[in-house]
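User
Here is a favour to ask of a fellow structure person. I am asking you to supply a protein in sequence and structure-token form. Please set it down just below, with no commentary around it:

Assistant
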Amino acid sequence: MASPPLEFLTGKIVSIIENEVSLIGGVRDQLDEIKRELLTMKAFLADAGKKGALSEVEKTWVENVRDVSIDIEDIIDEFTYQMNKQRSWGPYTRAFRQMICFPKHLWERHRIATKLHKIIRKIRAIRERNQCYGVDRIQGIGASHNYDPNRVRIYGESSLFFKDDELVGIKDAKDKLVGWLLSEQPERSVISVVGMGGSGKTTLVANTFNSQTVKKHFDCHAWITVSQAYNIEDLLKIMIKELFRAAMEAIPLDINNMSYRGLVEMLIKYMQPKRYVIVLDDVWDRELWSHINVALPDGAHGSRVVLTTRNEDIASFSFGVRSHVYHVHPLIEKEAWDLFSTKAFSSWPDRSCPQELEHIARDLVGKCKGLPLGIVALGALMSTKRLKSEWTRFSSSLNWELSNNPTLEVVRSILLLSFNGLPYRLKRCFLYFCIFPEDYVVKCERLKRLWMAEGFVEQVRGATPEEIAESYIAELTCRCMLQVVQREPSGRAKTFKVHDLLRELALSISEAEKFCAVYHSQEANEGCKDSHRLSVRASNGEFQPHRDMSKVRTFFIFSPAMSDSSSLEKLPSGFKLLRVLDLKYLPLAQLPDDIVKCFNLRYLNLRSTKVKELPKDIGNLHNLETLNIKNSMIRSLPVGMVKLKNLRHLVMYHYPAYDVKSFNWLDSTQARFDISKLESLQVLDGIEAGGELIKQLRHMTQLTRLSVSNVRGVDENDLCKSIESMRLLQFLGVKTSNEDEVLRLDALATPPPLLKTLILTGKLEKVPHWFHSLDSVMHLSLHWSRLKEDFLPYIQTLPNLNKLVLHNAHVGNQLIFQTGFQKLTELSLGNFPELNTIIIENRVMPSLRTLRIGECMELKQLPDGIEHLTCLQELNFIDVPSELIQRIHGEGSLDRSKVKHISDIRYCCKIELGFWAWKRL
């Protein structure tokens, strides 16, 4: 794959040629030629990405093309930097400077032209060497990075011969599959088993398939390994051979000469009167079903088709018949340890782990995160190592071992299969996870904005970049390349991380592709000078960068322990070509003065830093798309921000003290300029109302997310008119200036049609009349509303409500959920001073999975009807009377039987020194 993205680089050159004619004198021809060469390079690298194992000459060729593309980006960005300086002068200043400083400008242009000439000569030299060594074009189909498809196929099919004592943690899954296979349902059905590469899908299905109970149930059976590159005629021939061989019948001699039609007719004739089971292992393409389905007769004999896949989209595909999906989950800790021990210590005394190795061994097992493939391979490899020093050395160099140790080649090949199967655009997005530390959890919104800033998100007519980026996340998740850590109540993925072994693979590919450099504090000195993306692990808050940071485009710092005395209180300077700067949680007090010269900066994350103010000249960052100052010490935006015409995401709310008992749980930021001038803004999160701001919002019809605080009752008409104008709004948060200020919203005729989240903080004298029409709302939060009337009937029939948060929302001693709330999965009740009774009628909230109750000191018994909430999985109590806890604490307690179906019950209580801690019940 290319690094940097060549289409992005080509686009920059085209923009220069088309829009900067007056500033490119003397270098236009060179730019045109380089643009043509880039298009050729892009095609070449696409071919390289499809090639199998490359020869050494081809590897050198690929590396040369990548290196020269990086050199081109350096020169183009430097050239753009010089043009931007001239553009910022204005016509009179430009004329004056060109007259006074003409020799200097002439020298700058000559220097850049010389560099472009040098690049062109280098490109021509690459082409000449290619012709000399006979590699004008890379041929072949497959995948790069030494992926061996034959090795993967052999490993998959070897699962058919595993012994039962070699398998761990599959009993329940096998019972589920056997139940589907042997059910009395007469129609043919499809069973999909889905999971990431190496998760044990094939092993599970093979063990089930080989069961005598299963085989006796069917008249004929066949196992077909599909993989990425398949030929449908070859698969049909294999199926015929498998069917005839299993039945101990003579294989037809003429099948090798048969056409697709003849093969299909033979299969239909053979299987039509029979009950069959066909396994399609390692399916990558949904089109396979349309090609092979016609050969699988759909009689009423109870036939079954089983497929394994890494792709959720394939598993959930509508096959036109009854279908079942089984998701393979990682092994739990005990199962993973047992499997590793079986492989690693089978020849040791007592077949158990020596005490001096246990800590290292458990760390290695932890790296595998329950992935059977990795556990088995590591266990087999470590079985040959006896010394503690060998174990320690291996553990510290796992990244290198994964890429170079022949014993782990099958692990590498299977994981590479997933990576190489990604479209080019997704390969870059996946490799981006090597920037983050191990087990780092990344929010969906952050990831989308970073990809946009990097130029990874393609432009698609009729869709926003945010929508396209979200589709990338969905595709990586469906392909089991990302692990969803947390989901919204609606089911939408909220946070992600990458499996450790996949991350190790990404690191090795990233190093080879020169995609990103990852340094620890003691290493990040000379090495960072040639890196475009730099991710620093600043242990103990120390980082000593190389003095030249001019080539760095993306800069992240991560530290497990940032102290107030950290050496990172000041950031290194020299980032003139910076595109992404992420300083989340860094105890940084001030940005470098030259940050405003980073004309290319698109993403600036100052979340939870100690920065107190933004530079006055921040308006010079014309390309800035995302600015995040959440939980920083910034409370006012400079007037210069009005110039940020490309700003799309402005996140600036603060949590001074997240305590639902406090009205001031959320704070915001002032803007002393006309906020409506930011015409590209999509997200305006945490703005403080004041002056003309409420009226200005009326013109921001493009907003998809808005949260505004310090609202007063007199703002009702202006606020409601502004909200009505925002037809694209999906998130709305409104907070009054203080707890006694009434939040008046009756002037709003109808809510925005796409609204999904509504958070209101402030006193409500009555329920807004439009509450009943919140048809699209999935999340509703009411804080400090203190409604006197029963508001539940207004929202109980909302068709899409998934999450309901009520904090001090009602004045009274009871809440009665009489009907409705059919899709509600999460309910949070907090800070109800008088509440002593909660009643949940039968058949209300049938989908509820999470219930939280806190700060309700008069509530001394469980909600009446909690036993009817059969889907409830999590029940949390925070600061509630001890009487309530005692009623469910222990098997013999009064109300324990009412919550016995709930798997996770916890309460938060005070422990020593006034600290709070969670305890299980």
Remarks:
- Residues 516-616 form one domain.
- Residues 56-89 form the longest helix (34 residues).
- The radius of gyration is 31 Å.
